[in-house]
Amino acid sequence: MLVFRPVETDDLPQLQRLARHSLVGVTSLPDDTERSQRKVLDSCSSLKTDVQSPGPENYFFVLEDQDNRRLAGCSEILATAGFNEPFYSLRNRQFISASRELNIEHGVQALSLCQDLNGHTLLRGFHIEAQLERSAFSDLLSRARLLFIAAHPQRFAEAVITEIVGYSDDEGRSPFWDALGKHFFDLSYAEAEHLCGLQSRTFLAELMPHYPIYVPMLPPEARACIGRVHPDGQSACDILEREGFETNSYVDLFDGGPTLYARVAAIRSIALSRTAPVAVGSCIDARGRYLVSNDSLQNYRAIVADLDYTAGQPIALDSEMCAALNVCENSPIRVIEL
Predict the structure, then answer these.
(1) Residue whose C-alpha is closest to residue 78's, from 10, 11, 145
(2) What amino acid positions are annotated as catalytic residues?
């Protein structure tokens, strides 16, 4: 059985294996032991902290196959983007220029460096092994974070964002980076993203141009990347769009990938999930497939399960499900249909 749970210090070697195979642009999953160790320790500390309002906390989760203790994926929540350092994006909006004398008014798209998304909760670090993409377990790895937010709302902001990895070719070349960022840094796109994963995006962002970049002045290849999703990131994007996330006027400053946004109250897994007590049983007349989680903090768990769910009634779970979720008879659990 595959179980979604908070990361533990013993997971570090396997996290490095996942990092080596992660998509270029997933900078929050660096192939660096020291950085990964800090991330794990930070997550463990965040779960032990008594939080009444969102702050710098970072929650890092893994998807584990309990039969062989192998990690099949990971994902992450940053409670407040921009809390410890600015969270930079490119705002993609139309600039209007006008001449009364010539009776001409003209609009042109322009990209502007900004910190508009500071203060939002950020979903990041999504990575799943290729054989599980577009499966129910891909939904589990992404959406169980949302059930965690539903269980602990005081820890998170009222709106959630995520940056979807933008387009790059098979050699790791990003036309958007080559047309823009590379003029300011003598680095390839892959090198820049790797550097951000090891250190911080802030110092690179602060060297980017602080004046508007007029989109028509970019090469056609680069313009085509604005808001474009990398093919390997499309399934992660699709999951969140089904949750109610929408694109907005912000894109990633390195590869031009889209930023998705949703109010917490409008996110499907948060708004429609329901809690009910457990009824331990050995035979389940399954009528649907659900994501199921406990509402714990440090011992948070979530799984995919075939259940017979009726609103307002206890939910029958077998012993294997109960063990995976660390629950027993009458324990509260949260469910949302896949």
Answers:
(1) 145
(2) 230
b or e along 101-126 (b: 16 or more beta carbons within 10 Å of the residue's beta carbon)?
eeeeeeeebbbbbbeebeebbbbbbb
Q: Are strands 288-294 and 246-251 parallel, antiparallel or unpaired?
A: unpaired
What is the fold, at CATH topology level, of the domain defined by 273-337? Barwin-like endoglucanases (2.40.40)
- Sketch the domain layout of the chain as residue ranges: 2-91+113-269, 273-337
pTM, two decimals, is 0.91
State pLDDT tens for residues 35-62. Answer: 888 889 999 999 999 999 999 999 999 9
Q: Identify the three-state secondary structure at position 220.
A: helix
The gap between the terminal CA atoms of the chain, to the nearest Å, is 17
Rounded Cα distance between 142 and 138, Å, is 6
The architecture of the domain spanning 2-91+113-269 is 3-Layer(aba) Sandwich (3.40)
- The tokens 């999504």 sit on which residue? 126
| Tokens encoding 255 | 């590869």
